[in-house]
Amino acid sequence: MIKHLLTLFACAALLVMGGCTTTRIDQFRQAATGLKTDESIVILGRREKSNYETADTFVNCVASSVGAGHDGIKVIPEKEFLDALFPFFEPRTAPMRTANLKQLMDVEQARDRIKSYHIGYIVWVDGTTQRSGNTGGMTCSVGPSAAGCFGFGSWQDDSKFEAEVWDMTTLESVGSISTNANGQSYMPALIVPIPLIARVEASACSGLGNQLKQFIAGKSG
Amino acid sequence: MFRHLPALLLLLTLAGCATTTNIVIGGNYPVPLARKLPLAIGVYYPPQLRNHSYTEVADESEGKDKYVVQSGAAQVKLFNTVLPSMFKSVVMLDSPEQAATQAGIDAVLIPTLTDFQLGLPQKTRLKSYEIWLKYDIRLTKPGGERIADWAMTAYGKSPEEEKGVVTGIKSAGTVAMRDLAANFTLGFAKVPDVKDWLQSRQRP
Lengths: 221, 204
Fold this sequence. Notes:
The structure holds two protein chains of two kinds. Chain A is α/β, with parallel strands linked by helices. In chain A, about 30% of the residues lie in helices and about 40% in strands. Chain A is built from six helices and six strands. Chain A has helices spanning about 1-15, 55-65, 80-85, 100-105, 110-115, 200-215; strands at about 20-30, 40-45, 75, 120-140, 145-165, 170-195. In chain A, strand 4 and strand 5 (about 145-165) form a beta hairpin. Chain A is elongated. Chain A starts with a helix and ends with a helix. By secondary structure, chain B is α/β, with parallel strands linked by helices. Chain B is about 35% helix and about 35% strand. Chain B is built from seven helices and eight strands; from the N terminus they run H-E-E-H-E-E-H-E-H-E-H-E-E-H-H. Chain B has helices spanning about 5-15, 45-50, 70-85, 100, 120-125, 165-185, 190-200, and strands at about 20-25, 35-45, 55-60, 65-70, 85-90, 105-120, 130-140, 145-160. In chain B, the strands form two sheets. Chain B has a five-stranded mixed sheet with strand order 5-2-6-7-8. In chain B, strands 1-4-3 form a three-stranded mixed sheet. Chain B is elongated. The chains are: A alpha/beta, B alpha/beta. The interface of A and B includes residues 93 and 113 of A.
């Protein structure tokens, strides 16, 4: 009976708490965009900062989101591109501005390799998710015949990411999209801990991915 | 009453044990995009580089949890991937002196690892595993006369999140190796003494 009640409580709480993420997306367009049928894009994470680096899981998530659906765009996997263009897109050597990209395109080997991929746009994703506001507490005990936890914990996740889009024909920046998602997660425990996790990063990823898709196709803003 | 005693004793015994974890830096490294210099290079890897091993004690006060990081094979593998993409030909040498007896070698490259540092999140309070390497690179003529000496550093980090210590250190090591390759490939011809030597070879 208690088991059934707990399951019911968990399901109800998940339904109530499931929407605890707020996502805001801003777009800044500098030039018109559009992709030819044989062109693809590559989405790369910025990793030169000392205090954080853009997680490859997030970059892969955005790439999957951009590539999904009937209007999906062909995205070259980040690892494949980094290996193919090695050593020009490593954290130490990657072009930071479009002026550096123009210099890179003067290097014959790099230019030929980039052209072989028919890349229409390079998207640079920069950002991270930070956790704060850890509150509450939980106590767990294990005895010879039983084990259980009791307590309540909560925390806040804040995801801030920006995607800058470089046009590989004009070698100029054509705009940027930023996303800011935050949400509160809860972990009540009554014998069994029940995690009610706000999917903040996933929300930032799908928001950024969908907006990028429209931006590159030239459908928005 | 005493049925849990053996398990309790085992737990107490294990709690006092120091653990040593061997971590071998591996990884496959891509061939760099580089324009080959018309040089036949002899390369000598000192034993200190080939067999490099570094030990980090996670809890220095009690000498517990040692991490032994073996990176020698990865470094040799990396140089063996990078050098053939940069030079017309590469000859492996058993000693730097061997170059004098081998015809056709233009210069000898000797990379020496002088410093290796490992940053663990539990010590640095940062949310990443870090590896920092410092090399002294020497380029000599086949007879041993100096052409250039320069220092080179490489750095790699890997986020702590959801990765164990072994995966985190391996991943940071792989990133550091890629950084080393990038630094060496793009920096070699810009080293002032190397640049002068290359220009002197082009003069009639």
